Amino acid sequence: MALDETNSLSRLTEQFPGYEKFTSHITSVTLSFVLPFLYITDRHNPRITASLLNQIYRNSGDCSPTHFAHINATACFTARLLYDTVLNALAGWEVTWENGCQNWPGEDGKRYNDSIDSFLHGLRNLRNKSWGGTAKGSGRTADEEPRMVLLIERAERLKDNLPDLIVPLTRLAELSQVKITTILLSSARWEDIKPPLGASPDPYFIDIDPPSKQDTVDSLLFEFRSASITHARADKQDKTYHPSLLPLYEQYVEHVYNVCSLYTTDIQELQYIAAARWPGFVKPVLREQSDAHGDGDPDPDGTCTELTLPASDGRMRLLKFFTPSLTTALDVLYPRLTNATDWALANDPDMQASEEAQCQTNTEGSIIVDHLPRMSKFILLAAFLASTNPAKSDVRMFGRGADKQKRRRRKSASPKKAGAQTTVAKVSQRLLGPVVFPLDRLLAILGALLEENDVENRPHEPWFELPGEYTDMELGRVHIYAAITELTSMRALHRTTAVEKLEGPPMYKCGISFWVAGALAKDLQVPLNDLMWDPV
Amino acid sequence: MSPHKPEEPDNSDDADELNLSPLKLPANCTTPPPRPHVGRVLLHSVEITTPRSFPKLAFTASPAPSTRQPLAKIPTTTTGVACHVAELVAASPSRPSPFQNVLPPQNSPNRTDQLPSTTSRDRLQSKSPKKDQSPASRPQSPTRIPRSLPSHLGTCLRLQKSAMLSELQNCSMECDEGASLGPVNTAASQQLKDLLAGTVTRGEGNSCFVLGPRGSGKTAIVDRAIASLDQTPIVIRLSGHTELNDRLALREIARQLSLQTGKTYLGELNNDDDQDDDDNPFLDASPSIDIPPPSHLPALVSALTTLSRPVVVILDAFDLFALHARQALLYCLLDTAQSCKVGQGHNGIAVIGVTTRIDTINLLEKRVKSRFSGRMLRTAAPTELSFWMKLIERVLRARIEPQEEEWEPLWTLAIDNFITDRKVLEQIQETVAVTRDIRVLQRILIGVVAALAPSSPFPTCAQLISAVHAQRICDPFPHLSTLPYPSVCLLIAAVHAHTAGHDAITFEMLYDAFREQYRASAAAPIQVAGGSIGMSRCTREVLMRGFERLIGERIFICITASSTSIAPGFARYRSALTWDDVKRAVDKMGKTNLKKWLTKAQ
């Protein structure tokens, strides 16, 4: 048994480098039931920690009777889901079609998911059942009570979804009189989810240290090895993950780490970036190999042959060549602007030059305005101005004297200088977010914009004599209102008053960002900066 | 060194002499009798009772400039010494030694970290000669503690660990036995036992509170009092944390009763519930719970005294029950307890409220309060340090049956040294002064025990301090200096916004500040040693990821409810960090560009 233990431990160490200390700590703490409640804070790689804990407790079944439930507080967003998931996992009950898709029935056929009391009864029942079962089955002493471990991942979600359950979950052992250890795993601190008035006992705290560079590289290498094993099993001709490429991969991963670690040290993100770039990176190497072997015969047992790796200067050239694409990969893949497959296709080293334009993805992310009709663009621009400028500045910004001479009395001082006089500098509205404006104001600003920028483009209509009369007519058209409604439905405008409300003008808020507005203004040839109260 | 081991080449010793006479000496003085060097004998008598001043004294005595190099070498040489001693002991057959198989300790990878522990260990080791001189009560008494565990003692260590952990578990469950419980708890325990005995044997109706701070042994006292009864009563445990209203509590009472008596109560309700189940299994949980109507409450509670055995009702978190509507459950329970008279053929009932809230009695309504007996049993943890030290000692000296007989003296010696360490005492004193919650101490001890490993097999003061830091005085944000660049940029921008008087920040504000800073640093590129120390480029989206990360860690706290109509860039947040926190983190990171930005006046 001891041999088994060391074996599984060494396997864990290999799979999770850098976690040795934590593994020995947590196993010795939870080996015998000492602590009813642990809180693990991992701000770096909580998912990896969760899978490590999962493996520890799943594999420890043979040396001590442990029932283990691993739930995610994101998935268990109602109390009932949580009860059912926990009990099913602890009892090892699989919900299948054959058993009628029912939850763990217990022995008395009662429901255990209707309240926390029933859940506690369920736990007790489970304890009695497995206790009796093991005592009879393997002749264990009856006083060896089965231990249970409940691991809750992303425990910070409990505070939002199930605030009433935090206290009972943290006192689970005390309330149920069952030897159950609750482990909360989260990236937030316990102080952030702690219920008020000290209702929960303080947990045993474990903080997980950030992984070192070597640990990160090691765990990426482990992934490569397991990928190459699965590829070899699948018997693919693809040599991308050939085992003999491991030294090259090590160098590559270190390079990826050096490029990206300034921005993220998350192992899984690095893995994602590395995996996205690796097939392209290794392509020239593989091509050289197949050229050397001769194109004619793709040897059937190609997986067995060793690949010769490029010499050190060749490797340096490769790394140098791919450095810029790693940076773009970080910029695109880390915020998940696109997925790894698409990105790898778009950044194929063979056709990189041609696809340069493709790389410019929809980084703004929100609303695409290129296809809008001209009037809608004006409406959006007017909405942006109405949301950004203070309402009392409208006369100054858009007003015209009788002599048709522009008389703008813009505040000449920049906002920074104004801030120097008062105690608190005002933050530009552009940064604080759009304010709400009534529809009338939008129409008025739209009229001013159109009169300034659009009149010359219209065909001459002889029956409009007064200045501005034509624009007024345009403003009165029903399609303006239709366009506003359409923009609202595509979330370029937000309507803040209810649709069914009749009194007062409807209120709106602009939904486009400053950059989109700038692009619109450029398109319409409107000097946006001159029209803003706080010019950029 | 050299006189004890003539076959050892001298060069290592010379190196010792050159590099560090000061720290080698204490290690040296542990070596057995023949001591030709007079100077060393003198130093041996310098004595070891002043643990902290000793290394300092040694350092000041050394005239050599305390540069990094000799400092870094200290552990190496001391390991060397220990290694020699071990070999020597093994070589000399005249002396019975438990160190027959002591392996030469490996060079540990992080030497500089070992420095404090090395000195303390030296101190520990230097005690051992005195022990040696003591009469040979233990012929196998070890003279020194090995640095790392010989491999054959690994199982002993594992056994010892699990023994200590189970001891710790017991101390939380049962607090402590007998007189060491402290005067307050002993009195409370006795009163409670008397009260329960009255209920069980004479059929009285009783009610009382058990009041006391957290971790002072309330639940333990109640459990022990019930366990000590000669007749098993029906025990109903309710907790204010789970019974959120009286109807839930009522259902739970019925359920526990039927589990302990075998009869069903509220049976007709369960039938109704079954029908509900068949109706719509997809219905949400809340409406289909078979909650009894409140009208059942008085009937059920008054039936408690008619049962075959006496009943003990334990209300944990009693103050929360007082918040239930009209305090109906408490009224019924206390009314039943009060009206339960001896000699009417009823069995007794005892209602025990367990709470930490000192003014719980004031929460009760008048009609409820008048039915409560007013008995309040106080619990408090013992105040004397000796109690806590005894507790620690008991845990650490947990008995095992070791397979290797050299283990026990070794362990005893290590524990002796640990307990008598002045720093350890200080730490315990401080902890007990802050809180007398036994669970805090328990957690700290678990931290110490769990940190034991073959590489560091015996508890040390450093382990205790790190456990105290992990369990009692947590640093709220220990990881700030390891945050990635985008997050730190946002933190600095937030700090600047705070300085400018804007408590509420949006992502757009921070991004604007970052762009400003980036532009400024790009406009005047400064190169130091060929590398730019300007700001690194960072796209808006990557910064947004950093922002989300900070929100996830609750460093940025949302101050307005999020809504679909507010773009994520404009949601308002507040930073939980102060300028000092960020300053410390940035200093630790050591990036010039960030430091400059942080200290820049805006």
UniProtKB/TrEMBL annotation, chain A:
Residues 249-289 form the ORC5 lid domain. GO terms for biological process: DNA replication initiation. It comes from the Eukaryota. Residues 405-414 have a biased composition (Basic residues). It is found in: Nucleus. The keyword Secreted does not apply. Residues 372-530 form the Origin recognition complex subunit 5 C-terminal domain. PANTHER family: ORIGIN RECOGNITION COMPLEX SUBUNIT 5 (PTHR12705:SF0). GO terms for molecular function: DNA replication origin binding. Keywords: DNA replication, Nucleus. The keyword Zinc does not apply. One of its GO terms (cellular component) is nuclear origin of replication recognition complex. Signal peptide: none annotated. Transmembrane segments: none annotated. Residues 396-420 are annotated as: Disordered. This is Origin recognition complex, subunit 5-like protein.
From TrEMBL, chain B:
It is found in: Nucleus. GO terms for molecular function: DNA replication origin binding. Residues 97-119, 134-143 have a biased composition (Polar residues). SUPFAM superfamilies: P-loop containing nucleoside triphosphate hydrolases. It comes from the Eukaryota. One of its GO terms (cellular component) is nuclear origin of replication recognition complex. Residues 404-586 form the Origin recognition complex subunit 4 C-terminal domain. The keyword DNA-binding applies. Residues 270-281 have a biased composition (Acidic residues). Residues 120-133 have a biased composition (Basic and acidic residues). Belongs to the ORC4 family. Residues 190-339 form the Orc1-like AAA ATPase domain. This is Origin recognition complex subunit 4 C-terminus-domain-containing protein. Keywords: DNA replication, DNA-binding, Nucleus. Signal peptide: none annotated. Pfam families: AAA_16 (PF13191), ORC4_C (PF14629).
